[in-house]
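Continuing the batch. This is chain 6 of the set; chains 1 through 5 are on the previous pages. Same settings as before, nothing changed between runs. Recording input and output for traceability.
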Amino acid sequence: MQAMQYEIALPADYDMEIIRKRVATRGHLLDDFPGLGLKAYLIRERAAGSPVNSYAPFYLWATSEGMNAFLWGPGFQGIVDDFGRPRVRHWAGLAHTEGPASTAAPVSATRLCVPVPEGVEPGAFVAREAAADPGPGAVLSAVAIDVSRWELVRFTLWEQSDPPAPGDRFQVLRVSEPGRRGLRQGRHW
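Output for chain 6:
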């Protein structure tokens, strides 16, 4: 499993209905994309209390080939054409857990980035983080790591609009999940 996200910062007065319409009219294009486990179409809105307006899709890829086909194909090119080329964050997958609300439609998401502390055994740290229970209301949770920065990310989809977890908060507009059921649960090592 590979995790990926790009966040497109938008002006404070940007009409977020443009993003909603984009997702409503184009989101279905990834509903059967080969190699994609899940794509959560996420936004943050100043009007809803966020410090920024942004469009920030998050992906869980079941295969590297699927991720590469998206990045080097027409899907990502549409983002580049409309918004410029964003920085794409990429993390190696450590764990995936279906939460207690796994059958619910997610309405919010959290992204918590945590540095792996100096002086700790990296294996023990990531094992503990990968085993953490996402908690009530979680639809699913994924833990991944960027070893170039020694930064762990915990991404969780929630059934409630005010999730009980720390981190950056997003509204979920839509989810494409052609390979979600095929994503291996638990630790990935």
